[in-house]
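Recap from last week: sequence in, structure out.
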Amino acid sequence: MLSVVSVVASLIIANIGLASPAGAAPTCNPTFVPGVGISIANAGLELGYTNPVTPGAPVISQALTASSPEFIPETPTTFTGGTLLKVANNPDPALDLYATWTGETSQISVLPLITVPDDPVQGWGFACSTCNDPTAVGAGGLLASGCHITAFNGQCVQIGSAAGDIATPGDCTDLSVFDVYV
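Predicted structure tokens:
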């Protein structure tokens, strides 16, 4: 006869198994090379933005172009934790544009900032199942795979299933597993 404790433990383990995304559990954090751009892809699409990018425009899913990076990861200088994602093809050199979660609209937006950001809501955490040495990965090569990208509140970035869909923060499900290319 099963005890109440073993039944509850079994239910907890089953729920954890259901909540885990497909693929291996995250075991590493990719190392980003300063100034080297990245593409963040899922199922033939990548995170990107409209071109030309405009301040406040949402981050969207678009056709994968791993050889043309969309973002430049930066380490924040005024807070610890996470990575800043700067727009790679910024049309206005006087304005730095970073991906951030607006919160109010539950979408990931590209916002204007003139100085280095100091707000933790702009920091994204990368936890991946495999990470490669960035010095051994050439342009268009795979830097990391099976990655969850988390926002400051623990939610994961979700990409739409069609080009032009707006990226949103949400529960960490199968849709939140990305590959990162340099």
